[in-house]
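Protein 1 of 2
SEQ + STRUCT:
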Amino acid sequence: MAKHKREKLKVFALGGVGELGKNMYVVEVNERIFVIDAGLMFPENDMLGVDIVIPDITYLTENRERVQGIFLTHGHEDHIGALPYVLKQLNVPVYGTQLTLGLVRYKLEEAGFKKAKLHAVHPDENVYAGDAKLSFFHTNHSIPGSIGICIHTSHGMIVHTGDFKFDHTPVDEKAADIRKMAAVGEEGVLCLLSDSTNAQLPGLSGSEKEIGRELSDAFFGANGRIIAACVASNVHRIQQLFDAVAENDRKIAIISDHIENIVHIAKDLGYLMIPDGILLNEDEMKRLPDEQVVFLTSGSQGEPVSALAEMVRKGENLRVKSEDTVVIADNPVAGNERMVNQTIDNITRIGADVIAVQSQTHDYGHGSAEELKLMMRMMMPKYFIPVHGEFRMMKTHSELAEAVGIPKKNIYLAEKGEVVEFNEGNAQWGGKVPAGKVLVDGSGIGDVGNIVLRDRKLLSEDGILLVVVTLGRKTKKVVSGPEIISRGFVYVRESEHLLEESNRIVSEVLNDSLNQNVSEWSSLKSGMRDALSRYLYDKTRRRPMILPIIMEV
C-alpha cells in the first residue's frame, strides 16, 4: 500500500449512531471513500404508514466517483437492508462473506436489481481498493459470516468491529479470531468504531449453547404441536431449532417464505446442517399426530404482518390452538417489547402455552460490558468512536473506554453526519456532512417527509372535514353547497347541530367574501378554513384537517 506522509482521514456515520438500525459508516482516506454497511431501520410509532427507514446518502451520491465500495460486516437487515435502494443510486462494488452476499443477492433479486458487483471475501484475506488495503477478522454474532473490518492507513488502522460477542462455545464451533484481533492491536489501531448495543449490560453475554439446551428442554416438555418463532436471519437459532426437532423425534415445516429462502441460501452455502428426514411441507405435517409436529415461523419480534401474527388471528391455513406450545426463540430488540408482549398476550388468550426461551438466559448476539472492554484492550486504539446504539448506549460505552485507559479527549461521541478528521494521526472535529433519514413508503422513496407525516398524524388523531362548494364561473355566486363531509371527526348522526352550524358559518364567510369581490380561491379557502377551525375547536377541543374544495360551473 502506498504510504502518504500527510495522509488525511475522515470518519463519520450516515446512520447507526443515536439509534438502533440504519447502520452506515464512512471512512475517507485522502480522496478515497469506503462505506461500511448499508442498513435499514423499521419505522418508529409516529411514522404512520412508513414501511422502512434508510440513510440519507446525498453525500455519497455527490461524491460517487470517489466511492471505492460498500463493505458489509454481516447479513442482518440493519446492515444490508438499504442496499436495494442505495445501489440504484450508487452502483459500486459490494464486499462481504459468502452468506452475507447470499442474503444480499436474494434481497436484490426481490427488488429486481440485477447489476450488482458482488465480491466475496474471507476473513483471512486482504482486499485492495484504490490505493488502500483492507483486512478482516472473524467475529461471533447471531448469524454466521460476521466480520470486523480494518482499513490500513499510514498512521494506523481504522477498525470497525461489526456486531460481536465473545462466545467460547458457538453453535458452529467457529470461535471469534481473538489471535488476529490481538495482532491488529499490536500492529496499531488509530481509531476503533465498536458496537455499543449492550454496553449497559454488565458482565458477559451467555453462550448460544445454553439456548440450544433450553430449546431442546422446551420441546421435550411439550405435549401437542410446537410453533417456534425466530428472526429469519438468525441462522444459528434456526440450526438449534432443527437440532432440537431431531433430538425430540419430531418433524418440522417452515411456514414463512422469508425463513424458507434464508434456509435454502444458508444450506446451499454450508452454514446450515439439516438432519435427514426432519423437514416436511405443511401438507405432509397435517398427516402426523400433534406430538410430532413443529412449525417454524417468523414473528418473534411481534411484527403485526408476520406469519405468527396471522396464525394468532386465525389464518385460513393454520391456526394457533389451545393445546399448542409457542416457543419465542429470540429476545425482542429494543423498541419492539410492546409488540412482542401484545403477541404473547394474544397467544395466551387462546390458551396456548408460551415459552420465551432466550429471555431466560439473557443471551444476546451483542457483547456485554466486559466483552466490549476486552475488545478495546486487544485493539488498544489511540482514538475511540462508539457506534451502533442509542445515545445512552454510546455514552456508557465511552465510559467503559475511559475505564480501560483511553483518554477522554480521545473519545468522540458523534451524531449522524459529524465528521472526525485525522491530520498526521491527530483527531479533531471536522464539520458536518448531510445526514438524516429517508422514509420508504410503498414504491415512494423519500417523498414522505415531516409535512406528510404531520398530516397523517393529524388525520389519525382528529380526522378530516371536506367543505365542497360550487360557484358560477360568470356570476361568482354559490350554485350549490356548501356540503360538509366528515371522516374520523364526529359521528354524523349524533352531531347534526354541529355540522349545521358549521355549514352556516362557511356560508356566511363565503357570501361576505363574494360580496367584497374576493375572487382569489386561496383567500376564499383560507377564510372558510380559519372560521370553521375556530368554531370546531371551541365546541369540541379538536383540530380536524379542514380541506375546502371549490369548483366552477
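Protein 2 of 2
SEQ + STRUCT:
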Amino acid sequence: MTGNGQPPRHTVPKLCGADIELGNFVLRSDGRAELGDEAARTLLRELRSATGGVSGTYGAATTEPGNSGYDPTDRARCYLPTNGGCAYIDLDPLELCIPEVLSAHEHVAGWHAMIRLTQEALEAVNLTQPRGRKVQALVNNSDGHGNSYGSHLSFLVTRRAWDNIVYRRLHHQAYLAAFQVSSIVYTGQGKVGSENDAPPVRYQLSQRADFFETMSGLQTTHRRPLVNTRDEPLAGVEWSTSSLGVARDHPAAARLHVIFFDNTLCHVASLLKVGATQIVLAMLEEGCIRADLALDDPLAAVRLWSNDPLLETRVPLATGRAVTAVELQRCFLEDAQQFVTAGGCDGIVPRAGEILALWEETLGMLERREWSSLARRVDWVLKLVALERALRRPGIDWASPELKHLDHLYSSLDPAEGLYWTFANRGLVDEVVASSEIDRLMQEPPPDTRAWGRAMLLRRAPPGTIDHVDWDFIRFKLRGADSWPTYWTLNLGSPLDSSRAALGEVVGRAGTLAHVLAALCAERPVSDIPDASRDTAASIAAPPPSHVSAEPSDRRTP
C-alpha cells in the first residue's frame, strides 16, 4: 500500500521524446537531386552555429569516414543549449530530436520549435549556395523510390510494462499493435503510390505502412516491426520513483521506442499521435486492456486500411469480428474514457481530458466523412485536398510525376513552396498550441524534465570543458590552478529530475560551472562552497543528491 492507503500504482508519467529524420538533398538547376549527405552536413553545421550546439563526444564533430569515432548512423551529434534538444546525421538524413516533454501539447510545441530552427538554418544555407544549387529538406518518411526514414517516439514506461509488452504478455503487444495500426486514420501523412513491393495504389493514408514486415523486433531499417523491442532506456541503470507517489519496489524504468508513426505537421494529428499513445500506455501499465481488440493479422491490416482513403475496409479481429479502422479506434477511445474517468491518468498524462475530447471529435468527423473539417486536423486529408485540386488540371492523373512532386512538396520546410505552410499561413489548419509557445521552446527548454538541467549546464560550460554529453549524463573536464584536469560526471539518469524545480536555485545562485558542480555534489548551500575554480575533488565528501550526482574522476591526465 502507498502512504494514502491506496494500492500501489504501477505507472510513471508518460514523458515523451522524439527523433525524426528529414528527407534532405541538394537540388540542381537541371532538376536532378543529389548529395543527401552533403545537404545534411550543411544544415547541421548551420544549426550548430546558430544555436551554439555542443558536440556529444570529446568536442569533435566526427562526420567523415576514417575519423575516430565515425558512425554512419550517428554522426556529428550536437546538443542544443537553447532548448535541450539534439540534432545529428543518421546515414544521410538530418535527424532532429526534441527535448524531453511531459505533455502532448508540449510535444507539438517542441516539434514545431525544432522545425522552425531548421527552417532558419535552411534559409541561411541557401543564401550561400552557388547559382543553380538549392538545399531541400522534407518532413516526410518516404522518398518514393523504396527508401523510408523514421519518425520515432520514445515513451517512459515502467520496466514491468515494457517486459509485459515484449516478453511476458503478448496480448499486451497485440493490443498496442492494434491501436497503432488503426491510428493511421489520423496519424498518416498520406502518400501517392506504393513501395517495397506492395500492390499498386493511387493514394494511401500512411507513408510507413508499406515498410512494416514483422510484428516485433529490434531492427529499425529493415524488416521493420510494428512494435520495436530495442531496450535502450536512456534513463540510467535504476532510479526510484517513490517521490512521484509510486511504489518503491519498481525496478529501473524503461523506454518504449515507437517507430510506427508517420511524420505529422498538423497540430491535432501530432497531439493525438502522442496523447492517445500516452493514455494507451498508461492503460497497459495498469493492465486495463481488452484482449479481444487484437487484430488477426496486424501486418495485413495496416496495408489494407492504408490503401482505403474512403475508410470502408473491414479486417478481422482475433475473435473473428470484422471492423473498420475507425470502429476499432472508437473501441480504444471508449476504454480510454473509462480509464481517465476513474483517475487512471491523474499525474501521468497531462490534460488527458482535452486529449480525449479532441480524439472523440476527430473520430466523429471520420465517421461522418467530414473532409473539410478533417483537412484542418489530419495531414493525409489536407494533402489529398491539395492533390485533388491539381488533378483538375488537364493532363494530370495519379500516375503523373507532377502529382508525386506535389506529394513531396507538401512537407517541404521551405515556407515559400511547402503546401502545408501555405495552408497553415492562411489559417486553414487548426492550432492546439500558440505560436508564442513554439517560439519559447526554440529558446528555452521544458522546465519540468531533465532537458532543463541539460540546457542550463551546457550554457554554463566554457569552451573545451565538455568531455562527453548524452541524454542521461554529462561529463565535464575542468582544470584547477595546477592545470591538472578533474573529470566530473553528472548523472541525468532520471528523465524527471534535473528540472528547474530541482536545480533552479543552485544554477541561479552559483557563479562558474565548477561552482555549480561543487554545489550539486556537496549538497550544500552555494554560499558555503569555497572557490570552485580550482580542483575541489579532495574536499567533496558528502553523498550526492538523489536526483543528480557529480563524481570527480580518478583520471589525472593533462
